Description:
Blueprint: H1 2-8, H2 15-37, H3 39-46, H4 66-82, H5 86-136, H6 139-143, H7 147-163, H8 169-189, H9 191-198, H10 201-212, H11 215-238, H12 240-245, H13 249-302, H14 310-351, E1 372-381, E2 386-396, E3 400-405, H15 411-418, E4 426-431, E5 434-435, H16 441-446, E6 448-451, H17 462-466, H18 477-486, H19 490-493, H20 513-527, E7 531-535, H21 543-556, E8 561-565, E9 577-582, E10 585-590, H22 592-598, H23 601-611
Parallel strand pairs: 3-8, 3-9, 6-7, 7-8
Antiparallel strand pairs: 1-2, 1-4, 4-5, 9-10
Helix pairs in contact: 1-14, 2-5, 2-8, 2-14, 3-5, 3-14, 4-5, 5-7, 5-14, 7-11, 7-14, 8-9, 8-14, 10-13, 10-14, 11-13, 11-14, 13-14, 18-20, 20-21, 22-23
Amino acid sequence: MNHFVNILRYAKPYKRYAIGHIICNIFFALFGTLSFVALKPMLDVIFSKEQNVPTVKPEWSGLMDIGDFVKKYLAFMMDHYTNGDNSKALVFVVCLILTVFLLKNISGYFANYFLVFLRNGVIRDLRNKVYRKTVELPLSFFSEKKKGDILARVTADVLDLQYSFLSVLELIVREPLTIIFTIAVMLYISPQLTLFVFIFIPIMGFVISKIGKSLKRKSDRVQKEQGTFLSTLEETLTGLRIIKGFNAEEEFNEKFQESTSRFYHFSNKLLNRQNLASPTSEFLGICIIAVILWYGGNLVLSGTSTNLDDSMFIVYMGLSYNVLTPAKAISRGLYNIKKGGAAAERIQEIIDTENPLKDKEGAINKTSFDSELKFDNISFKYEDEYVLNNFSLTIPKGKMVAVVGQSGSGKSTIANLITRFYDVNKGNILIDGTDIRDLTTESLRNKLGIVTQDAILFNDSIKNNLKLGNDNANATDDDIIEALKIANAWEFVKDLPKGINTNIGDAGNKLSGGQKQRLSIARAVLKNPPIMILDEATSALDTESERVVQAAIENMMKNRTSIVIAHRLSTIQNADEIVVLNKGEIVEQGKHKELISKKGVYYKLVEMQSFG
C-alpha cells in the first residue's frame, strides 16, 4: 500500500482532474442508488397497490425524515401529473427511471473523462521521472544492471501500473460511495435485514484476501523474467554481426526461448490466480443474495418489518446487488494493488537510488580554465583491486600530455575520472586549484571535449550528431562543415546524398569504423573546449586517415590542454610529456626522445609496435 501512496504523489499536478473525477463519481453513486429506489413507485403501480397520496405538497422537516419526504414528494408529483391514472403513472415512473439512469451514465462518462487525463498524466510523468533518473545515475549503476531490465522497468512496469494501480483510481471514490449510499437506503428500508447481511461480508473479504496474498510475489517473478528476455533481445540486436559470424544463432535462440518459457509458466500461475478472484467473489455474492432471499422473505411473510413489503423487498434485492457489484470491483482493485506492488517497487528502486555523483550544495559554476589541471595523489578502484595507485600528474594549460601503457594499466580510467563518470577513492583532481567535486557537473563537462575509443553516434543526421549538447546547439552549417574538414571527414560527407543532413542509421552503422571515428572527432572540434580528452581516438582509422587526422588533431590542439590516451605510440611523439603506466602506477615520465634513450618500459612498447 505504501507503493500505491507513492505513485499517487504524482497525481498532484492533476488535482483539478481529480476533483472533477470525484464530483462526477459522487453523482454517479447517488444516481446509481436512486435508480433502484425509483423502481418502488413503478412496482406499486404494476401491483395496483393502494397509495395514501397527499393532496398537498409535503413539507421538509429535516434530514432525519428525508426518506419519508422523498417518498411522499414522489407520490405527490406522480398524482399531480397523472390524476390517479395508472397508465399515465406507469409512463411517469418509466420516464423517471430513464432520467435517473441517464444522469447516472452522464456522470459516469465525465468521471472517466477526467480520469483519462489524470491517469495518462501520471503515467507520462512517472515514465519521464524514471528516464531522467536513468540518465542522471552514474555509469557504475548500470555496470551492475542489465539493459533489458532497465527497459522493462521504463516500459512494461510503468504500463503495468497503468492497468493495476491507476485503474484503482476509478474505484477509490465511486465504489465506496455507491456502497455507502446503498447501505444507507438499505438501513432505512430494513435495519434488521441489513445488519444480518453484514455478518457475512467479513467472511467474503477474508476469503478474497487469502486468494490475493501471493499475487505480488508471482507478479514480481513475471516482471523480472520479462527484464531477462528483453536483455537477451537487446544483446542480440547489439551483437548480431558477431552472433552470425560465430554461428551462435541457435545458442541465443535457446537462451531466449528458455526465458520466454519461464515467463510463460510464471504468467500462467499469476493469471490463473487472478482468474480465481472473479468466480469466487461472484459465488460468495450469490450466497449473500440467497441469505437475503431466505431471511428477508421470512420477514415479508411474517409482516414483522414495517417498511419491508413485497415491492420494497424487490427494491431491497436490487440494492443488495448494487452493493455486491462495487464490492467485487473493490476486491479486483485490491488484487491489482497487490499485482502492481511489484512493478511499483521496481520503478521506485530506480527513482530512490541515490546518485553519489550529484552536485553538492553550493557547487561552483566555473566558467573558465586559467592555469592547470592536476591529479593529486589519486587512487581508484572499480571493485576490489585498485586500478590507479597514488597517481600524481600536473598538466599546465596549453600542454599536451600522453598516457600510454599496456591494456589494463588504468589509462582509460583517467578519462573516466576527469569527466566525473566516477569519483576517486583517494586524492583530488583539481582544475585551477579547485577540486572538481566542488564544481557543478555541467560546468566541468562544458570545459571538456571527449573522443572515445568507440565512436558513439546516434540514429540521426550528421548535422544533429555534431550539434549534440548545449555548446554545439547554435552552430551554423558553415561551423559544422569547418569541423568536418578539420577532422578529415568532409571528404566523404560531401559525397553523401543529403550531405550533413544524411541520416547515418542506428549507432552510425551506415558508415565505416574510420568514418564514424572522424565524425566523433568533428563533434569534439565543433564544441571547441579548453581541455580535450582523446581516449585512443585514432585507433579505428586506417593508416592514411590516421596521418591526416593526426595532423588535424595536432593543429586543433595547439594552445589547448590535451590528455591523449594512446595505443598507437606513433601518434604521441610530439607530446609535451609522456606518462607510462603499469598496473595503475607511473613507471616512466618524460618526452619521447628522453624515454627512448632510457631504454625502459616505453622503449619496449615502441619496439614491440615497430616490430608488429
